[in-house]
Amino acid sequence: MHSASGTSFDPVLIHDMDDAEVVGLTGYSVGELRLIFRPASLRRNPNQPTKFPQSLAYVLSFSDIKLNQLDPNCKLLQVYKLYNARQERVGRVIDLASIVRPCPLSPKHEGMAHIFTDPYTSLELYQEFFINPFMTHSDYRSLRVA
């Protein structure tokens, strides 16, 4: 997604637990990728053995994925943005290698969509989202559970 400044931020699926499923979402979470970086100490000496990850990512967090709460209308799982007590988005630093893949999110809205909604603004305009496991509309029509 693109911010108002034109910067791109993408929702990603994050491997959080060692016992995560190979197929399914148990042990995973959703994050909004904001920054990929390498700690300065590793940039100075990239061959130095370390127990820390070589590359890190800063992600903004979403709620836990409630695997037993499918939306009755579209059969998709839901997540929402997490905020702290000061109403700031909750973020965390993770090992870049724990990002599994992009995680398409579809905004959840009641009634008409916001007038400025498009693929580049929906992460900014909405608070709640459906986890969309389908990359195209034809995937949804052919693969969804009836």
How would you characterize this protein structure?
With 146 residues, this protein is mainly beta. It has three helices and eight strands. The chain has helices at 40-44, 122-125, 137-143; strands at residues 10-15, 28-37, 56-61, 77-80, 91-95, 99-102, 105-107, 128-131. The strands form two sheets. It has a five-stranded antiparallel sheet with strand order 5-3-2-1-6, with no helix packed on it. 12% of the residues are buried.
How is the secondary structure organized here?
Elements: E1 10-15, E2 28-37, H1 40-44, E3 56-61, E4 77-80, E5 91-95, E6 99-102, E7 105-107, H2 122-125, E8 128-131, H3 137-143
Antiparallel strand pairs: 1-2, 1-6, 2-3, 3-5, 4-8, 7-8
Q: Could you list some keywords that capture this structure?
A:
mainly beta, 146 residues, globular
Report how far the terminal alpha carbons are from each other: 30 Å
Beta-strand residue fraction: 25-35%
Mean pLDDT across the residues is: 81
Given as residue ranges, the uncertain stretches (5+ residues, pLDDT < 50) are: none
Question: Number of helix segments?
Answer: 3
Strand order of the largest sheet: 5-3-2-1-6
Tell me the radius of gyration.
17 Å
Brief sketch in words of this structure:
It is built from three helices and eight strands.
